[in-house]
Amino acid sequence: MEYEISTEDQTLIASAQEIIKKRYEWERHHVGAALRTRTGEIFTAVHMEVSLSRVTVCAEAMVIGKALSEGYKDFDTIVAVRHPDPDSPEHEIKVVSPCGMCRELIADYGKDCKVIVPAEGKLVTMVAAELLPLRYVR
User: What is the DSSP secondary-structure string of 24-61?
Assistant: First the structure.
């Protein structure tokens, strides 16, 4: 089920864009994420690129960890954005869909959490569990 994005969602996207604008570093940090809790707090973080790619930590994981570390665990909405590479003809910081591992992470820590994703030329929100149909549940 898709939902139109709200004014609060637009603010969340702007928060993710702002953190990656501030912290962008070529070959280190090009994805930013923002997470809103059910009580309205917003957390932001960037991903950590590492030379050994399997050690790289996604921005969604970083922001979830940041919120959890501060005692928040009731998540409402999450979004990730990607900063363009310096040599890219594209200059817009755009919303991106979470990778498979992040979909698992979001669904584990916030199965009812909404995720803002691009779909058919527009932005929509979907419930995290919808991004992983028939997922493994322990």
Answer: -BTTTB-EEEEEEETTS-EEEEE-B--SSGGG-B-HHH
